[in-house]
Amino acid sequence: MTNTVFLQRIADLYDEFKQHDARQSDRLRRYRNIEAESAKLLAMLVRTQQSKRILEIGTSTGYSTLWLAEAAKTVQGRVLTLEINAFRSAQAKKYAEDFELEGFIDFWVGDAADYLKQAMEPFDLILLDAERGSYVSYWEDLKRLLQSSGSTLIIDNVISHPAEVKPMLELIKQDEHYMSSILPVGAGLCMVVVK
After folding, report:
1. Which of 58, 93, 162, 187 is buried deepest, with most CB atoms within 10 A?
2. Where are the alpha helices (DSSP H) in the chain?
3. pLDDT of the residue at 1
């Protein structure tokens, strides 16, 4: 069960991140973390699916990483999180240490496309929350990593940025091996599962 101390600390951290973003006029300087309700849903999915191998594409400062790791801890799972910005990844690692969750997270710094091209072992749950213009180029590699029945891909920002994710959602719809549904949670999540 998610403990009260974690919930209070993560709520405070979320507020801190939101305040930071509100002060930034440049989009790229914002942390752009996932919405609180979306992060909570992801943690619930990890628990209900007993997701042992979790991949996060786009760490930012690690807000969603903390939720995923806290849930992974309860199911003896692990999170691998990919981030192109070394400074952001280091920030996320520090928060993981502060929350005593670093033992459940592997941090990988670099272009997600490079990691995805060489990755072979499937994941139980993948969160895609990075630069949306790259999503289409990830699809073939993501399919290889979603081989297991019950493997789930979650794509964030599908309601808040529909035009930017439309090409990816169209690709998924055209693939007979996958089912998808839009969940009106946070900025909008698309849940994709292997049929």
Report:
1. 58
2. 4-22, 36-49, 63-74, 86-98, 112-118, 135-145, 162-173
3. 46
